[in-house]
Amino acid sequence: MPKRSDIQSVLVIGSGPIVIGQAAEFDYSGTQACRVLKAEGLRVILVNSNPATIMTDPEIADATYVEPITPEFVEKIIAKERPDALLPTLGGQTALNTAISMHENGVLEKYGVELIGANVEAINKGEDRDLFKGVVEAVKEKIGYGESARSVICHSMDDVITGVDTLGGYPVVVRPSFTMGGAGSGFAHDEEELRRIAGQGLTLSPTTEVLLEESILGWKEYELELMRDKNDNVVVVCSIENFDPMGVHTGDSITVAPAMTLTDREYQRLRDVGIAIIREVGVDTGGCNIQFAIDPTDGRVIVIEMNPRVSRSSALASKATGFPIAKIAAKLAVGYTLDEIPNDITEKTPASFEPTLDYVVVKAPRFAFEKFPSADATLTTTMKSVGEAMAIGRNFTEALQKALRSLEKKGSQFAFTGPVGDKAELLAEAVRPTDGRINTVMQAIRAGATQEEVFDATKIDPWFVDQLFLIKEIADELASAERLDADLIAEAKRHGFSDVQIGEIRGLREDVVREVRHALGVRPVYKTVDTCAAEFAAKTPYFYSSYDEESEVATRTKPAVIILGSGPNRIGQGIEFDYSCVHASFALSDAGFETVMVNCNPETVSTDYDTSDRLYFEPLTLEDVLEIVHAESLAGPIAGVIVQLGGQTPLGLSQALKDNGVPVVGTSPEAIHAAEDRGAFGRVLAEAGLPAPKHGTATTFAEAKAIADEIGYPVLVRPSYVLGGRGMEIVYDETRLASYISESTEISPTRPVLVDRFLDDAIEIDVDALYDGHELYLGGVMEHIEEAGIHSGDSACALPPITLGGFDIKRLRASTEGIAKGVGVLGLINIQFALSGDILYVLEANPRASRTVPFTSKATAVPLAKAAARISLGATIAELRAEGLLPKTGDGGTLPLDAPISVKEAVMPWSRFRDIHGRGVDTVLGPEMRSTGEVMGIDSVFGTAYAKSQAGAYGPLPTKGRAFISVANRDKRSMIFPARELVAHGFELMATSGTAEVLKRNGINATIVRKQSEGPGPNGEKTIVQLIHDGEVDLIVNTPYGTGGRLDGYDIRTAAVSRSVPCLTTVQALAAAVQGIDALNHGDVGVRSLQEHAEHLTAARD
Amino acid sequence: MTLSTRGAQTPAVLVLEDGRAFRGRAYGAVGETFGEAVFSTGMTGYQETLTDPSYHRQVVVMTAPHVGNTGVNDEDPESGRIWVSGYVVRDPARKPSNWRSQRSLDEELAAQGVVGISGVDTRALTRHLRERGAMRVGIFSGEAIPDEGTLLAKVRQAPEMTGADLSAEVATKEAYVVPAIGTKKFTVAAIDLGIKGMTPHRMAERGIEVHVLPATATLDEVYAVQPDGVFFSNGPGDPSTADHPVALMRGVLERSTPLFGICFGNQILGRALGFGTYKLKYGHRGINQPVQDRTTGKVEVTAHNHGFAVDAPLDKVSDTAFGRAEVSHVCLNDQVVEGLQLLDRPAFSVQYHPEAAAGPHDAAYLFDRFVSLMEGQRA
């Protein structure tokens, strides 16, 4: 049966900004879906507030709305576009929740929009815990298997004590009913703990009710990815087994596909239960993901939960199997059945089969606890990782070690040298799941732990434990062998050892190991991910390396460009870089090159086998990249390797690649050095006659102190060669400088620390530009809303700049050109300036694609990354203008006066983290980047654009109500006008005594409220923190006090996060917010697609 | 048990009849073995695969790299012994892990004298077989392996699968009864051409008392059990040699006794109806094959293990000696006939394995269909 003919247009909802738990995988899914729907001849209308996505590229959908994903804005889009259908299952929980609330408030019915891909009843059955429990019971009724965790409801301590026996003893989980955010829940291992937790729970619960649940901590954990079509055909696309047993969120677990430790009988039982569940829930068309726990002692199966939509796991499963779940889900949603859809990879067989793997896939999570030192790093059922790497090998050990080195994080690879620790201590440490527990386990093995001891401590399945022992035994053989012979190296390679690891074990340099290995003829081969274990020929070159016999890389005649991706998402290097890599691939393919993508991040569009001509799913280390270049050079001519688009990861390989004879195109490694090395960059600036803040570089405290003494405190200190302001800090005195130097692990004689004068009160400006060696194209000028000192990635910014005049732009252009020329850029450059007084300082220059490239591209309707890729391969800006890739005349510095204003706002992950006492972590912005994602607000005036950016990032700005203001002394002056505006808009002001006094003297009334430190008043007056918790505050303005005491206001800000009250931490943000509130209160805020904005802009340019 | 990782292991070599060789390490028993090289793509169920009599005289290449992870138990085998003549894996488990595991697969293979090889590029071997077709192979292990020329000569002397009559070698010599579970509703005579243990179990679950009869059973012996239905099982070898079962089945068809065939039994039905059979280039062996039930249009994911297939027209109803017949099931990967049914008599068969083990349970409804036929005959 072909596709439905009654649907002509579809609205697709994206997932918005990247946050922990909802990341780039939804761009991958959404992009696939939009392309499929468009190819089917449907008009695709898309809403997504995240500019750093491929799906919001104007060519992916017919009408692209970069607008907040809230029911209000989506309704405006529906009213304007009148789509026939809404596909809500591809944009994560955000899209699903938005669709559900629009169903509930009648908007869908009002406009006659049909939900496709999932019906509301099915969504509710899958998502609501109680309803889902009923689903599982019904399934058990039908097929005899599957159950939910046993539980008992208790209303008294006696109930609780007897309840434990009915559940089969300790430990038990206690969950008080109707408390917010699961407050008061916990594990009880004995009666004493039970009495404490349950006692507190009974008190906390408004209905004096707690739920006791059997503990399935330490059980084996599995996931199945299923798809169903309208004819009730169901396939299981992939099974996934968690290396970390139950208790760790699957997003934070190391996971393995396919399942490794199930017999067929057990696997088929999961499959039967899974299929029965998707039918019972009623997912008519599309995918779902079901999680199971299995008791390792008797095989009892518990169904944990299901997601009736495309999920992070389904993206992983798609990459792991070559079965594109989102793409097929989109086709099913418009009426196709599985047997009507061909398998892309074989082209000859249909999608109504189950992929079979002849390799092993391992996914490892990437954490960012170093950015949140006060956060508790214990892994729990709340997801905390910010990204992931996936690796493919012909066996588990190979895939695991590749995954660990793909994480590209110090200490992520197993280490077999160095002192052997204390076994008992290491085992005790391994009990607690954390980032890097697997490395602790390996150290315990080195310290003599037995397989049983490791299992007892971690409950990691004995088969996996044995694999770790296998790796350790290979390491021992490497260490003890008289010499490295071909057999030994090949064996080590087959178990995933890198040249670096072998070198460490043998006391050799990495390049020496590689030379020996090459001399002995030990090189990887490349196998194909083909969905069918070689049963049918694969047409799609999706490769992974393995130390096996036969390579499957075909020869080619067209020159290839190898694009190095950015690896796992992390704070500071996220989806924005993937965006640039994908654009390069598209542009170079159009220009007649064969494109070859290398990346190890399963969430991304770049690792979709459809994106480039060839895909190597490989770690981005020097060794792995060199081997790919070698394999591709045997296959045909190589035009070049692009390192400047994937962020710091490939950039860091640039020099070494060149030294190994690899043709790095675009900005040369020497030029990169000229920008990254302070001394060299200083000379560039001097030659161009540009000022930089006073600065110096130091490798010791003494050197740093001397510099700081000369330029004066505060100083900004940071390690060189880092991204996202890692380790960057504003240091106000010598004591802190000393501790900073001693704490920093990144500093070495080759990697000095940079000490800069810190410019208080400066306006920070970001510039993205293209340079072809002769001509500069100013991509865009972004003015930060927060002042210098807050990391540009965490700062909101506006494009075009809202307070800079023609003279400033002229200066910026001249400076940018001077630097681009001086450094020797060929492609993109990003420069940060600070305008302090009337002096334009250069803060830093990055000769690569920056985080803001997608934002700039979307705001100005010019594909900068595409242009950069072309320039790298020899095109000039003049040629690209003639070709139409760049505008014929003008650039991002000469935008027409009526050009739309775009505001980028950063999204912070505060709500995800708790300290070890269970309290929230502080939310103050600083020089170290901590945001996970961003949104864009676009409109004709700044206020509206800013209001949209806030609505997209944190929820709408309040237009009335109560505003609490407490600012640092230095901000008190600049607070007065915005505060007066708030009052004019009808806000009632509350303030702490100091701020209230200043307001009063300026004729602004504010109620004095008690500080947290003052406690409740004699008549029960609440403190500000209590007021926030009680929902009595609608807007919070709290700027931290200048030096040192950055913890002031901590309670206020964490309360704001937990209650989702908008909280502005700079006075500049307050000023912007007031403009936003003003816009919201002045009539209707409209929506406009990017295509319409672009048309307008292009017309104005001509 | 933990093997040392390297060095201490016995070398082994696999030699294909076209001369390609793969070096690896001994797995299971040490020695030499011959058979037809075939690959199986199932990721689970190695115990069921090894003990499936249809694999008699075949050397099975596992495309899934890790084999043996869940060890061996006494519940999952499909017959009393391992039938494969050789076993090829890439990464055998060193330590089995499963609450039902009783011993390691390596031990089991050695105890049953099954010669295997590990550490070879099974994907390269699979691709070779896919391109060149299933062919004879030898595995040789031990400290002193002769040169490859000598081995190749030995491989080329081994018998071929085409023309092999193997059912009698694997089938039971004595009749036995699998009692119905719960109330007995029907009696079925099951001709054992290499039957898997799960098949009579699936019938027993439906209240059928199954009389498993030797492959050599006569029509009189079949009807001596007063069957409500007759079943023809799976089994090894070339269906073109199965003259006795074909004749037996014709006798059953003449009497219009409800009839169900699986795998080899499907090929027997094909022949009984006058269709030819042919050898597939490399067969279907796996548990992920999409089969469409042409009567409902629904797709089921099924377990396959067949190297031969029935040559019947897909696009029309055929007239046969037993009335009209049609292709009821087809494999969506390659349009191979996967099921036959008579329109005028109560008989049908499928080429794949509705009993699963290993494999998905999607096609279990076929046993219900058999039950319906028997009910229909009674009514």
Q: In a nutshell, what does this entry contain?
A:
Chain A is of the alpha/beta class and 1102 residues long.
Walk me through the structure.
The complex is a heterodimer of chains A (1102) and B (379). With 1102 residues, chain A is an alpha/beta fold. Chain A has 7 domains: 9-118, Rossmann fold (3-Layer(aba) Sandwich), CATH 3.40.50; 125-146 and 217-308 and 311-355, D-amino Acid Aminotransferase, Chain A, domain 1 (2-Layer Sandwich); 151-214, Dna Ligase, domain 1, CATH 3.30.1490.20; 376-519, Orthogonal Bundle (Carbamoyl Phosphate Synthetase, Chain A, domain 4), CATH 1.10.1030; 547-665, Rossmann fold; 694-758, ATP-grasp fold, A domain (Dna Ligase, domain 1, 2-Layer Sandwich), CATH 3.30.1490; 945-1081, Methylglyoxal synthase-like domain (Rossmann fold), CATH 3.40.50.1380. Chain A contains 38 helices and 39 strands. The radius of gyration of chain A is 29 Å and the shape is globular. The model of chain A is unreliable at 1042-1047 (pLDDT under 50). With 379 residues, chain B is α/β, with parallel strands linked by helices. Chain B folds into 2 domains: 11-157, Carbamoyl-phosphate synthase small subunit, N-terminal domain (Glucose Oxidase, domain 1), CATH 3.50.30; 167-378, Class I glutamine amidotransferase (GATase) domain (Rossmann fold), CATH 3.40.50. Chain B has 10 helices and 20 strands. In chain B, the strands form 3 sheets. In chain B, strands 10, 11, 12, 13, 14, 15, 16, 17, 18, 19 and 20 form an 11-stranded mixed β-sheet that branches. In chain B, strand 17 (318-320) and strand 18 (323-331) form a beta hairpin. The longest helix of chain B has 14 residues, at 365-378. Chain B starts with 10 loop residues before the first strand and ends with a helix. At the A-B interface, helix 9, helix 16 and helix 17 of A face helix 3 and strand 15 of B.
